[in-house]
């Protein structure tokens, strides 16, 4: 009997491992084209029989590359110019095979052949303003130092971005940074005069914007490719080859326009294109309803917030009691936890990727660190401010230090402790929206995607439920206070 059970257990483990090997994680950077190409990659792999986990909304090249290098994702769409300049630091590499060889030698990573289009960087203007200033190419910016440039944050810091471009052309402007998805609206409204763009952006044709000629050929070629681990199954690599040479620049621009102006779901756009090209078969998967989609993201958001808050309470509450007993180290520990609050959320999340990859774990750890200070500080303050006379009375009647803490000090400090936990919970609800940048899901996915599409409705799908969650947490803690705190103390703290 025992042998049979052992055999069954081994078979179960083996089948679980075999199934896990067929699960591929597809990433995508957080812009329209990244989402669409990511869906194409996912759908083609699914058509080949693989189970695909989508890890979209990754926050830029650095985050996506770290996720691939650390095995958090298996493949994502990338561009040869970005690979050469940003990742390899070898802008002289132009050919796909040379870039592929360099990536394989350094990190064991590979790229596919080109999808068929070049999505290079460009600078663009409103055509009326360009005509009035007789501007045709980037060199003409030298003559107009007063023009306001609004550039995407990534472009400002890229090795093939603003600083080397300005040096190559001798440009005098001091640009401001803004989200790429918002730049087009700012350009149309006249708040900026020039912005960077991807040459396949759907807005270019729709708004009739003028591309400034790169007459020094500064920008490298950005051929779209699949960037994947060398250990990817051979069948998966074969599936990815189906995209080779199948997308033209005009087609990609039209697909981007569908997402922007027709507000089609990225999956629908990718599926329709692949079916029209006969690259995949039909699928019966029905998209989730909007309500179910929102509730799924709400659950993910609650999971992120709840796990981080629970861990913070389990650590900060006993640590606060220890600091109360050993006050000479309290300030040092509180200062150290306070420093964590000064680290920008997106920076802390990005720092987690080399250590913990992407997804739930790094997001929960980052939120846990942010939740420590309010709980820790309020625990110490609550215990310190208990009436000294009551402490003396408790000692006078013979209570041990442990019983004084359990029966007198902690109950009297409870309003302050609950306030700290409440503050940490509300902070986590807001900060958790940024976890979408490292593929952790939650309501931030709606907000990030909405920013990429400049879609207010989509942004509100994430922002409104997050606000409702924050209010709900406030009400929940009101109930907890009513249950845990004596009535006379509730009146005192109201």
Model description:
GO terms for molecular function: transmembrane transporter activity. One of its GO terms (cellular component) is ATP-binding cassette (ABC) transporter complex. Keywords: Membrane, Signal, Transmembrane, Transmembrane helix, Transport. With about 500 residues, the protein is mostly helical. It folds into three domains: about 20-120 and about 220-275, D-Maltodextrin-Binding Protein, domain 2, CATH 3.40.190.10; about 120-210, D-Maltodextrin-Binding Protein, domain 2 (3-Layer(aba) Sandwich), CATH 3.40.190.120; about 290-494, Orthogonal Bundle (MetI-like fold). Helix content is about 60%, strand content about 10%. The protein contains 22 helices and ten strands. A three-stranded antiparallel β-sheet has the order 3-10-4. The chain has a three-stranded antiparallel β-sheet with strand order 8-5-9. The longest helix has about 35 residues, at about 290-325. The termini are far apart. Mean pLDDT is about 85; it is low at about 1-20.
């Amino acid at each position: 009997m025992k042998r049979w059970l052992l055999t069954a257990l081994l078979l179960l483990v083996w089948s679980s491992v075999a199934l896990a090997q067929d699960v591929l994680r597809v990433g995508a950077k957080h812009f329209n084209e990244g989402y669409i190409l990511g869906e194409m990659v996912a759908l083609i792999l699914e058509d080949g029989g693989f189970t695909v986990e989508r890890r979209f909304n990754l926050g830029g090249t650095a985050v996506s590359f770290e996720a691939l290098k650390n095995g958090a994702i298996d493949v994502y769409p990338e561009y040869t110019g970005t690979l050469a300049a940003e990742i390899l630091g070898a802008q002289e590499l132009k050919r796909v095979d040379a870039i592929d060889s360099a990536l394989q030698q350094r990190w064991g990573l590979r790229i596919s052949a080109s999808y068929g289009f070049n999505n290079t960087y460009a600078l663009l203007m409103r055509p009326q303003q360009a005509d009035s200033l007789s501007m045709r190419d980037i060199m003409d910016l030298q003559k107009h130092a007063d023009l306001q440039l609004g550039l995407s944050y990534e472009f400002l810091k890229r090795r093939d971005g603003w600083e080397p471009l300005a040096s190559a052309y001798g440009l005098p402007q001091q640009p401001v940074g803004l989200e790429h998805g918002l730049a087009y609206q700012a350009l149309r409204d006249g708040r900026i005069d020039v912005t960077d763009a991807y040459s396949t952006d759907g807005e270019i044709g729709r708004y009739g914007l003028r591309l400034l000629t790169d007459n020094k050929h500064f920008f490298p070629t950005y051929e779209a490719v699949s960037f994947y681990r060398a250990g990817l199954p051979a069948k998966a690599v074969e599936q990815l080859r189906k995209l080779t040479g199948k997308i033209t620049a005009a087609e990609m621009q039209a697909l981007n326009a569908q997402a922007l102006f027709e507000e089609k779901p990225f999956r629908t756009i990718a599926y329709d294109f692949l079916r029209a090209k006969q690259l995949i078969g039909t699928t019966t998967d029905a998209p989730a309803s909007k309500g179910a989609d929102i509730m799924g993201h709400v659950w993910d958001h609650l999971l992120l917030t709840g796990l981080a808050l629970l861990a913070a309470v389990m650590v900060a509450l006993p640590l606060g009691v220890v600091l109360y007993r050993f006050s000479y180290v309290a300030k040092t520990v509180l200062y150290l936890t306070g420093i964590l609050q000064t680290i920008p959320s997106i920076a802390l999340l990005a720092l987690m990727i080399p250590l913990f990859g992407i997804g739930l774990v790094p997001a929960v750890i980052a939120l846990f660190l942010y939740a420590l200070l309010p709980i820790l500080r309020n625990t110490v303050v609550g215990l310190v401010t208990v009436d000294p006379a009551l402490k003396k009375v408790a000692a006078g009647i013979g209570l041990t230090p442990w019983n004084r803490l359990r029966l007198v000090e902690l109950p009297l400090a409870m309003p302050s402790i609950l306030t700290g936990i409440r503050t940490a919970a509300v902070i986590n609800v807001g900060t958790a929206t940024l976890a979408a940048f490292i593929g952790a899901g939650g309501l931030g996915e709606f907000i990030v995607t909405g920013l990429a599409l400049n879609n207010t409705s989509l942004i509100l799908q994430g922002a409104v439920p997050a606000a409702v969650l924050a209010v709900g947490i406030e009400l929940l803690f009101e109930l907890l206070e009513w249950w845990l705190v004596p009535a006379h103390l509730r009146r005192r703290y109201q």
